[in-house]
Write a structure and sequence with these properties.
Elements lengths: L1 E5 L5 H8 L5 E5 L2 E5 L5 E3 H4 L3 H4 L3 E5 L1 E6 L3 E6 L1
Antiparallel strand pairs: 1-3, 1-5, 2-3, 4-7, 6-7
Amino acid sequence: MRLFVLDVPENASIAAVARDLPDVTVGRIGPYFVLESDRPISIDRRATGVRHAVWYSCVAGLDGARIAQWDKNALRTEAR
């Protein structure tokens, strides 16, 4: 499954935190970071250091995934 995040400076820390997650690879396609994994992806918002407005606008798209949690604490995807 893949999670797309727009590649802008405000979202760079989200991609950086995702790079440190086990079983998650971070690449780029066009203007997007692509977070890819065969397992659920879970990113802790506080670890990214982003404000709520950035957090709630970071998801640009999904492929083979759905959002299971997206609140002030975490963003978690799971297979669709």
